[in-house]
Amino acid sequence: MVAIQPCALLLLVGPDWQLEAVSANASMLGDVKPVALVGQPLTDLIGSKAIHNLRNRMSWLSRDESEVQDFGVQWGDVLLDVRASRNENHYLIEAELAVEQRLPDGIGMVRSMTDRLNGGNPRELAEQAMRQLCSLTGFDRLSLFDRSGAVIASSGRHLPLVDGHASDGVLRNCADRDSESVPVLGGGPPHAMERAAFLAPSESERDRLAALGIAASMTLPIRIDGELVATLQGHHPSPRRCGAERRSVAHLFAERVAARMARNGCDF
Question: Which CATH number is correct for 3-97, 3.90.320.10, 3.40.980.10, 3.30.450.20, 3.30.70.2190?
């Protein structure tokens, strides 16, 4: 059975905008029974205004690999950061509880961080970037790996690439290794839910993280012109979830760094 972490809820919407799958914690949005939502219109759960805004945002999706995000969205009495992607004729929606207020200028932060990079040596650029990203995200350790899993640069004690999903090029987050999993009710194509960022870790994944002293992790795929070239992974010894907008800033900055490294001769 598919399960997710309790800090986020998962919705799988079919082409008719009816809910085909919903996580059991959807009751955080109001007086609803999650099992009764399966087969019902999405508007019954989030309301007509929210679904109008969501559909407008989803119109930006250009292909199955793309995703859209919306930060600080009000669904009922809950403030959420929303991420949506498309898989053929289904939409995967993850809404995580917001952990901080909106950033005053996310794009400006990326520009400022990029301006502070010095020199042209790819490895030195990566090491500078890792230090900035540790400060931005609050993760104890951050490492940049090439596509073979070899470390390029690291801030803090280096650990191997521990996320078993890292090679699939999907953003993943483990906010708390020991949190109780939340089951996903309903059906829909299994592959449509494989790109969920907050899938609950399996028992073997929990054991592997525990053996390495990792309570939280963050995995960001790094692409250049759509091609997966590297993976950024963060580890933390206690439960931690970097806010969605801050995580997005980190992701954009890391991809800009990778592009600059490539221009300076790094072939990853």
Answer: 3.30.450.20
